[in-house]
Amino acid sequence: MQYNTCVSRMMELTNALYKYDNDIEEKNTKFMKDCVKDLMIIMSPFAPHFCEEMWERSGYSYSIFNQEWPKVDEDALILDTIEIAIQLNGRIKTKMNISSSLSKEEIKELVLSDNEVKELIGNKRIIKTIVVPDRLVNIVIK
User: Which among 57, 120, 123, 140 would be 20 to 30 A from 28, CA to CA?
Assistant: First the structure.
């Protein structure tokens, strides 16, 4: 509930919308309109006059302040893939994108079978492998 955090998150959403607009060839215009509409509603407590004007110019009814606050779709927040750091002796050497549904053992197998990781380990002996799900894999070598 801090002002700077709120502004930062709104900027992240704005930047994501710019990226979507620039990078995607076949845009979903309904999705874009819904996102911009939600962004205007979220911004309205911080910039009430600007948002009210943009609301009216966008063709929506009387006041932005009569609108319902956007709802969060919890299912949309679940990531299919995550980026994890790969450490050798506590120092980050590379990163990997993996499925978020993998178990600790599956993550360990996937990382140790990766060619880049094999190259980093070389002919050194693996002492211990520490897997922190959704974060990192630390390989202790000697």
Answer: 57
Fold (topology level) of 81-141: Ubiquitin-like (UB roll) (3.10.20)
Where do you find CATH 3.10.20.590 in the chain?
A: 81-141
Give the pTM.
Answer: 0.58
Edge-to-edge strands, sheet with 126-132: 91-99, 81-88, 136-141, 126-132
Q: Which two tokens stand for residue 80?
A: 């299919």
Contact between residue 139 and residue 110 where contact means Cβ atoms under 8 Å apart: no
Cα atoms in the Cβ-side hemisphere of radius 13 Å centred on 104 = 6
What class has domain 3-70? mainly alpha
All residues at 6 or more sequence positions from 82 whose CB lies less than 8 Å from its CB, including other chains? 97, 98, 99, 100, 134
88: CB partners within 8 A, 6+ apart: 120, 121, 138, 139, 141
